[in-house]
Amino acid sequence: MALPSCQQRALRRALCSTTVPTRHCRAAVIRGYLTAAVSLLTKMAELGAGSLLTGDPAFNYHEHELNERLKRLYPAVNEEETPLPRSWSPKDKYSYIGLSQNNLRVHYKGHGKNHKDAASVRATHPIPAACGIYYFEVKIVSKGRDGYMGIGLSAQGVNMNRLPGWDKHSYGYHGDDGHSFCSSGTGQPYGPTFTTGDVIGCCVNLINNTCFYTKNGHSLGNNLMKNDLRPNLYPTVGLQTPGEIVDANFGQQPFVFDIEDYMSEWRAKIHSMIARFPIGERLGDWQSVLQNMVSSYLVHHGYCATAMAFSRATETMIQEDQTSIKNRQRIQKLVLAGRVGEAIDATQQLYPGLLEHNPNLLFMLKCRQFVEMVNGTDSEVRCFSVHSPKSQDSYPGSPNLSPRHGATNAHLHNTGADSPTCSNGVTPTNKNKSHNKYTGVSSASSSPSSSPSSVNYSESNSTDSTKSQPHSATSNQETSDSEMEIEAEHYSNGVTESSTRIMNGTYKHQEILQADDSSVGNGVADDSCSSRQLCGGNQAATERMIQFGRELQALSEQLCRQYGKNATHKKMLQDAFSLLAYSDPWNCPVGQQLDPMQREAICSALNSAILESQNLPKQPPLMLALGQATECVQLMARVRSGSCSFARVDNFLH
Amino acid sequence: KCLFHTEGLFKPEKKKKKNFDMKNAVIGNNRQKANLIVLGAVPRLLYLLQQSSSSLELRTECAVVLGSLSMGTENNIKSLVDCHIIPALLQGLLCSDLIFIEACLRCLRTIFISPVTPVQLLYTDPTVIPHLMSLLSRSQHTQEYITQIFAHCCKTPEHQTVLFNHGAIQNIAPLLISPSYKVRMQALKCFSVLAYENAQVSMTLVNVLVDGEQLSQVFVRMMQRDKPIEMQLTAAKCLTYMCRAGAIRTDDNCIVLKTLPCLVRMCSKERLLEERVEGAETLAYLMEPDIELQRIASVTDHLVSMLADYFKYPSSVSAITDIKRLDHDLKHAHELRQAAFKLYASLGSNDEDIRKKITETENMMDRIVSGLSESSIKVRLAAVRCLHSLSRSVQQLRTSFHDHAVWKPLMKLLQNAPDEVLVMASSTLCNLLLEFSPSKEPILESGVIELLCSLTQSDSPALRVNGIWALMNMAFQADQKVKVEIVQALGTEQLFRLLSDPDTNVLMKTLGLLRNLLSTRPHIDQIMSSHGKQIMQAVTLILEGEHSIEVKEQTLCILANIADGNTAKELIMTNDDMLQKIKYYMGHSNVKLQLAATFCISNLIWNEEDGSQERQDKLREMGFVDILHKLTQASDPNLCDRAKTAMQQYLA
């Protein structure tokens, strides 16, 4: 979230001014700046909203419906890599073909004297293997003079001066005789003829390499494809006589044939195949592997008592020392309770040198501490409050790290306009802007990566998910990308990245926490009253916060001198400081930062850093396995194994 | 060596122990079960079960042991039923203890689903059904057992009515969304047997809501392709029965886009043999009356060629590799073949293109021909049904039917076959005897007339119709020799008996036969000279009797044919009564009758024939000219033309 420069300057002045004004004066100054900032921001928000409304609403609606349907039918397809066909290609067609209606309607404009006048058009993109099962329909608007129409598939490069099916690597069902042509000039008797008003569908099953056609919603039966089924077949139609017009439906409208029902049968087949897959000869081995997975997972997240109980019951060994687990648990609890200052102290005490060697982590923690000060949860400000005992052992409102792989929530989550920002968990403060037209696409494509249980592997993925963050107002795209790259260098290099741990449980928590928010007050001890106040409403605390803000600013500048400019840091700092620009920081565009859920990312990062410093794996094997499985499925899509679409890891996480 | 001492059961302190021993000993052991029954344990167990003084625990144990015994052979079940176990267990259901009730129900369930148990026993006591309905709410187990009992014991329309009247639909519908698969499945089966050929049930079912959703939609969901096959198939049956009972239109999407494709899938090679049989039979039933469904099914998933696979059991592979598989295949081979024939029959009953497609399927005609002489009556019946359906095609009669000489096995089938086969076979024969059928000649030569005449004497109206119908077809444009043969074989007595047949169809076809016999002048004269008197009597009788317009029209047409004869004419001209009748019908309010009567007069006054002048004079005297004149003004153009043509005879 970038503020206009004048406001930034104002804020910075408030935070960095060397002359210390009196209390009242300072408060007044802050208020003044803030009011100005808010009014400006409101204007910007209106501008942003206005730009949304431009464009044809009907078209947007269809576009939306198309996206929704494609996402539902082909959840495994990553459209960044392999876009789905959405219309006919104006480039990949014979000259006798005319296109209209958003390149969905095809009409014949040649002479149509004989078969030499046949003409075809391909869709814009080939059918991705990750579809598993692909389907499209064509409605015969007019059969024209003779109704020599062919509907089917062809590979790129197949002659377009022909009907689909006549040549190698092309397949077609023809309306005049009802024959099916499989890469041959002579057709096989296949189905009924078709004519004006009929809806013809073509279904490609990439799991068993078959294809069948439908007529008016009725399957006409399998049509065995040759084994040389070429990858990258394109939906294709061909016409041959004047007056022939057909309309394509790539998902713009509901299909006449119940393709989802057909898919459900194959999904069930593949799931039962997986369920019945034989595992090793020695059953005991399998069991102990599973037990170790569970145990290491519990230990990793510091569920000390549960882990001990589990190891007793299953007679497994725990590698890590019990006190070490408890220490980590204590630090995590502090972070999750919003008492970041104490967490930093405890870390420095228990793991000396750790934060010194991780300046980025330290900076992140400090930033979070600042946010928590605003929140009124950090002990540095809580000590000003009468009711808050400094050494409190139980944190009723704190989110406990009970990771739930709410994979199924992922999509829901992505679609919501006000979904929580941090989908990969690396940068809670990262509030880059990407705009709405874009969000649909990018969230669809990043859905595998942004699902809570999955692993982010690469920089590009991280970038995706920042794009998909629907929040915040402006800022330019380039900076966000570059920031992410820097960050990726920091936290991720390779397949198993910290983001996984960080993500655990995020989504599930959100609900719990929000529900708890008002009643328990997430650590703002006396927050039971309805309105939350800056720093718990305490004057002294506010001063301490301003003071801390300056220190943070100083730290940032110091890091900058030491390690060079760091856009991520700058952004984090900016976002954190922006909170002060609003009278009610909890309900402002950057208020998301105050959500206790945002603590989990930093908590997880800290936990991983500690584990790493103890030469323990920074990633639990369970997540590693999950990540590997996810990656395998993606790999299957790349090597064109259609069943991958029904073997999604998400389906097995409950 | 006998492990049990039934006497032990009589010593109170040992009862329970004995029971436990018994239970553990008989589980999974059919011989021990039989032993126990022989030793007379059943009456003793029943006694203990009914004793309200026994502890509930003991009574429950008794029910459990009995349940275990009933899991044995069919003979075991017979013995149990003979010991009046059913009333005793039904009595037990009145107890309030759920565990005990469940044990009783489990045992009852096992007994009732056995084919040896008379289902009527469920309905003897009228209080039983209402009580079972009330127990449906007790637990998932009671739901499962009771619905299973209903599903097996609902065999007749009376059973359906009893269950329906006791609220079966309202009570069972909510079970369709039970969390237990078994309960859902048994509830679904209940609906399929309740709705079968029952309009009342079906009409009620369409209006039932389950959790706010229409029942038909619940069934549609149960047909989704990821559901277990058993569930898909049974749900499709429910919708099929509701559709056939008129509760759902045949063009409803849930039939056209869901039920029909689901049933076609059930016929695929991937399904079990039993499922394929049921799928094909249900599909045949669904589309029997609807040509549109037949057309859709004929192009869905290559159904016609898919069915050809039904004839490939036992396959040559199974014979070699696996004796168990061979046994299994053999067991189902007949069922598969008859199901396929039924489905072909249904598919081809209306559409010429589909019939063509069927006869062009690999070896189809050969299969039908060999099916006609199979040992299994079910297969023979289905094969002849299929043949009948295909015989409605002129083209097939001319080509494939003749090429494969289907008349031969058909004629063989007609010799002392059961009535249901005879009806179909004779009906098919009717089509084969049509004038354009090349099979007509060889059939005639095989001495079919006797056979057909004997059919006309049958008690079954359907057989009488088919017999006389075949004769009618045979007489159409036939040689004099054939006609004489028919008249001789049938005998005038039988002919007149048929003319007074209570079945209008028989009467119509008999008149049709007469009309065909009385065509071309020499034939008319010859037959009328020998049987004129009787025929005129019969005609008078019908014209005077209370008959439909069609019958009277047909009769007047016969009269017109008679009037066309040279000598036969006189039989009318000399019969003033008959002439008055013709006059009457010329003035009838029905145009068809007027037309036929006018035709008759026109034949009588035709100029070029001998004695036409006298006839014209006589009829003029009788006032026919006035009537004809009036008819020339008739609004019906045919009648008007006919009257004008007749008037011209006077003018010439």
From TrEMBL, chain A:
<feature type="compositionally biased region" description="Low complexity">
    <location>
        <begin position="442"/>
        <end position="465"/>
    </location>
</feature>
<dbReference type="InterPro" id="IPR013144">
    <property type="entry name" value="CRA_dom"/>
</dbReference>
<protein>
    <submittedName>
        <fullName>Ran-binding protein 10</fullName>
    </submittedName>
</protein>
<feature type="compositionally biased region" description="Polar residues">
    <location>
        <begin position="416"/>
        <end position="441"/>
    </location>
</feature>
<dbReference type="InterPro" id="IPR001870">
    <property type="entry name" value="B30.2/SPRY"/>
</dbReference>
<feature type="domain" description="CTLH">
    <location>
        <begin position="324"/>
        <end position="381"/>
    </location>
</feature>
<feature type="region of interest" description="Disordered">
    <location>
        <begin position="385"/>
        <end position="500"/>
    </location>
</feature>
<dbReference type="Pfam" id="PF00622">
    <property type="entry name" value="SPRY"/>
</dbReference>
<dbReference type="InterPro" id="IPR013320">
    <property type="entry name" value="ConA-like_dom_sf"/>
</dbReference>
<dbReference type="InterPro" id="IPR006595">
    <property type="entry name" value="CTLH_C"/>
</dbReference>
<feature type="compositionally biased region" description="Polar residues">
    <location>
        <begin position="388"/>
        <end position="401"/>
    </location>
</feature>
<comment type="similarity">
    <text>Belongs to the RANBP9/10 family.</text>
</comment>
<dbReference type="InterPro" id="IPR043136">
    <property type="entry name" value="B30.2/SPRY_sf"/>
</dbReference>
<dbReference type="InterPro" id="IPR006594">
    <property type="entry name" value="LisH"/>
</dbReference>
<feature type="compositionally biased region" description="Polar residues">
    <location>
        <begin position="466"/>
        <end position="479"/>
    </location>
</feature>
<dbReference type="InterPro" id="IPR003877">
    <property type="entry name" value="SPRY_dom"/>
</dbReference>
<feature type="domain" description="B30.2/SPRY">
    <location>
        <begin position="66"/>
        <end position="255"/>
    </location>
</feature>
<dbReference type="Pfam" id="PF10607">
    <property type="entry name" value="CTLH"/>
</dbReference>
<dbReference type="InterPro" id="IPR035782">
    <property type="entry name" value="SPRY_RanBP9/10"/>
</dbReference>
<dbReference type="InterPro" id="IPR024964">
    <property type="entry name" value="CTLH/CRA"/>
</dbReference>
<dbReference type="InterPro" id="IPR050618">
    <property type="entry name" value="Ubq-SigPath_Reg"/>
</dbReference>
UniProtKB/TrEMBL annotation, chain B:
<dbReference type="InterPro" id="IPR038739">
    <property type="entry name" value="ARMC8/Vid28"/>
</dbReference>
<dbReference type="GO" id="GO:0005634">
    <property type="term" value="C:nucleus"/>
</dbReference>
<keyword id="KW-0963">Cytoplasm</keyword>
<dbReference type="InterPro" id="IPR000225">
    <property type="entry name" value="Armadillo"/>
</dbReference>
<feature type="repeat" description="ARM">
    <location>
        <begin position="490"/>
        <end position="532"/>
    </location>
</feature>
<protein>
    <recommendedName>
        <fullName>Armadillo repeat-containing protein 8</fullName>
    </recommendedName>
</protein>
<dbReference type="GO" id="GO:0048513">
    <property type="term" value="P:animal organ development"/>
</dbReference>
<dbReference type="InterPro" id="IPR016024">
    <property type="entry name" value="ARM-type_fold"/>
</dbReference>
<dbReference type="Pfam" id="PF00514">
    <property type="entry name" value="Arm"/>
</dbReference>
<keyword id="KW-0677">Repeat</keyword>
<feature type="repeat" description="ARM">
    <location>
        <begin position="40"/>
        <end position="76"/>
    </location>
</feature>
<dbReference type="GO" id="GO:0043161">
    <property type="term" value="P:proteasome-mediated ubiquitin-dependent protein catabolic process"/>
</dbReference>
<dbReference type="GO" id="GO:0034657">
    <property type="term" value="C:GID complex"/>
</dbReference>
<dbReference type="InterPro" id="IPR011989">
    <property type="entry name" value="ARM-like"/>
</dbReference>
<keyword id="KW-0539">Nucleus</keyword>
<dbReference type="GO" id="GO:0005737">
    <property type="term" value="C:cytoplasm"/>
</dbReference>
